[in-house]
From TrEMBL:
<protein>
    <submittedName>
        <fullName>Transmembrane protein 241</fullName>
    </submittedName>
</protein>
<keyword id="KW-0812">Transmembrane</keyword>
<keyword id="KW-0472">Membrane</keyword>
<keyword id="KW-1133">Transmembrane helix</keyword>
<dbReference type="GO" id="GO:0016020">
    <property type="term" value="C:membrane"/>
</dbReference>
<feature type="transmembrane region" description="Helical">
    <location>
        <begin position="227"/>
        <end position="245"/>
    </location>
</feature>
<dbReference type="InterPro" id="IPR050186">
    <property type="entry name" value="TPT_transporter"/>
</dbReference>
<feature type="transmembrane region" description="Helical">
    <location>
        <begin position="192"/>
        <end position="215"/>
    </location>
</feature>
<feature type="transmembrane region" description="Helical">
    <location>
        <begin position="251"/>
        <end position="269"/>
    </location>
</feature>
Length: 279
């Protein structure tokens, strides 16, 4: 089968690997904490419980994101993922009553337009993929807003991720049977191949390293510069993905992808200006 056929079939391979990623990532983070390689302070049980809504949103984002990525091309997924900033800004506007700069409104409009028009002109349109992408962006947007709440400031980024890992392992394991993933795993053709399990472990290690690197990067450089590096990484991934996966585009699709990238770049520019004014 071609990559396009695998994508359209909705093969839940990423859903199985995400369980490995959260388990391996959680174990590595716990070991790193005990060895003193990362700084995680002891927190009370009540503080951990107060973060559980964030963990629910985290699990929802990775589960829905895995579903969406198994059906959608990477550039399309990134364009829809960027629309999470729209959900975050709307929630932020009503929850915290913050005024949004004009350039940020323009960036939100560009992101929303790109994500809204893209399904109408996508030659590889997949209803299931777009559905899970919408669930993903809503969870990501809600997670970003939840992180900005005052009670979330009681935990560092690594402490939040530690709770996320633990909650993800428990929830994804308990949800395997109700969602049908357990029976699907038994029929998975590569279930007993060591290469599959080793690649899952490697993905978990890479996910852990990326998490720690992101936290270190945020602590050493301003957040807007960190966002710039993330933007560059996404552009590179989107540009290289057609070399490995079938991706059918037309002029309208390319226009939506470029508009989404322009909107994200404008958003980063706005955040940089806001940070400079505050500084």
């Amino acid at each position: 089968n071609s990559p396009t056929q695998d994508r359209s079939s909705g093969d839940p391979l990423p859903i199985r690997t995400e369980r490995w990623q959260t388990l391996v990532g959680g174990v590595l983070l716990h070991v790193s904490w005990k060895l003193g390689w990362v700084e995680i302070s002891s927190f009370s049980r009540s503080t951990a419980f107060s973060w559980l809504p964030g963990s629910v949103l985290f699990v929802g984002s990775i589960y829905a994101g895995s579903r969406a990525l198994s059906r959608l091309p990477i550039p399309v997924f990134f364009t829809l993922h960027n629309a999470a900033e729209v959900a975050a800004c709307i929630l932020q506007r009503f929850a915290q009553k913050e005024e949004l700069p004009f350039t940020k409104l323009l960036s939100i409009l560009a992101l929303l337009t790109a994500a809204g028009v893209l399904p109408l002109c996508d030659p590889q349109f997949d209803p299931g993929g777009y559905f899970w992408a919408v669930v993903h962006l809503l969870c990501v947007g809600g997670y970003k807003v939840f992180q900005k709440l005052p009670k979330s400031g009681l935990l560092s980024d690594l402490e939040q991720q530690y709770i996320n890992y633990a909650f993800s392992v428990l929830l994804l394991a308990s949800a395997a049977h109700p969602t049908g993933d357990l029976l699907g795993a038994l029929e998975f053709p590569f279930l007993y191949l060591y290469r599959f399990h080793s690649s899952c472990c490697v993905s978990g290690i890479l996910g852990f390293l990326m998490c720690v690197a992101t936290v270190k990067l945020k602590s050493n450089i301003p957040s807007e510069q960190c966002g710039t590096w993330v933007f560059i990484a996404k552009v590179l991934a989107a540009c290289l993905s057609p070399l490995f996966f079938d991706f059918i585009v037309n002029a309208y699709t390319v226009s939506c992808l470029l508009l989404g990238g322009l909107g994200e770049a404008l958003l980063l520019y706005t955040e940089k200006n806001v940070a400079e004014r505050r500084g």
